[in-house]
Design a protein that fits this description.
The chain has 14 helices and two strands. By secondary structure, the protein is mainly alpha-helical. The longest helix is centred in the middle third of the chain and has 39 residues.
């Protein structure tokens, strides 16, 4: 890989810019992680994935055929149950789906055998009986891929909403925070050093172990706590802006936080890792202090 440290080091304000990027990316990694966890809890409580999968299969197979599939003992064993309700499984293995569906379709009296899509697959795609299950696997994967795309789009919108609520609740104003970090480069440098552990973790391997993830969360949480000492939150719901003209800037800062949160934790982890690598190539304020020569000039500089 091309070594650009010699080009980057002399750039004025390089380290200051990188520190702001590192800390903002760590901040957005923090908000994205919390928002994702909140959404997962909410989605799991409502079992929206399982409901969406069943709804898509009812649309594709027909309600009666889908009901016969979910009534099958093997598929039913994957369901979860609360006190009063049986929740459909949020995920079905394609191979298992194909095996159960092929078995049900062999019964001429079953609703599955009368499903238009199953008849179509048998008539157009299956040459011999042994080809049915592989074709059902391909078809089911196409169904679930489409469902994943829909879920991803909804996740983006959910992250946007939860990110905005989180920004308002914790007063995570991107505009104000970025300005304060730029105005206090020394303090920003101290907080950025906390995240050097994150760079070491990202350099170790492509897949993080549980211990690595724990260290990463601890590093980011510590950096966030120190960041808030530089930029203390000024909760608008406790002390609202004094002038009506101050609200647009506050709302803009929250909106930028929400938009950044919607990009997801993995995106900001990658940005943070790459920024930390660039940061390691630059000069840190405490690194390599200049020593005066016999004339009192630093590093032999001519006055």
């Amino acid at each position: 890989m091309l070594d650009i440290s010699g080009v980057l080091q002399p750039l004025p304000g390089f380290l200051q810019i990188i520190n702001v990027i590192v800390l903002l990316s760590a901040l957005f990694f923090f908000t994205s992680t919390i928002s994702s966890h909140l959404i997962e809890v909410f989605v799991g409580f409502l079992n929206s994935r399982g409901k969406q999968l069943r709804g898509r299969l009812e649309l594709a197979l027909g309600k009666d055929a889908a009901k016969s599939l979910y009534d099958d003992p093997i598929i039913k064993s994957l369901s979860s149950q609360s006190r009063t309700t049986i929740h459909p499984p949020s995920y079905i293995e394609p191979e298992l789906f194909a095996r159960v569906t092929a078995s049900l379709s062999n019964d001429a009296k079953s609703a599955m055998s009368n499903s238009e899509i199953i008849k179509d697959i048998k008539d157009k795609l299956v040459k011999v009986e042994s080809d049915l299950e592989p074709k059902l696997i391909e078809w089911f994967k196409a169904i679930t891929d489409r469902q994943t795309g829909v879920y991803t789009r909804w996740t983006f919108l959910r992250l946007l909403v939860v990110g905005f609520l989180l920004a308002g609740l914790l007063d995570i104003d991107t505009v104000h925070i970025a300005g304060e970090l730029w105005s206090n480069p020394g303090q920003a440098e101290q907080v950025a050093r906390v995240l050097d552990e994150a760079r070491k973790i990202s350099d170790q391997s492509e897949s993080l172990t549980d211990a690595d993830e724990k260290k990463l969360r601890e590093s980011v949480a510590t950096a966030y706590a120190q960041l808030r000492t530089i930029v203390p939150p000024n909760y608008a719901w406790q002390t609202p802006p004094g002038k009506i003209d101050d609200w647009p800037a506050k709302l803009l800062g929250w909106l930028l936080t929400a938009l950044a949160t919607s990009l997801g934790a993995q995106f900001w982890f990658n940005i943070m890792s790459e920024s930390l690598k660039l940061r390691s190539t630059g000069r840190k304020p405490a690194d390599n202090p200049k020593k005066p020569d016999s004339k009192g000039n630093p590093n032999g500089a001519v006055s």
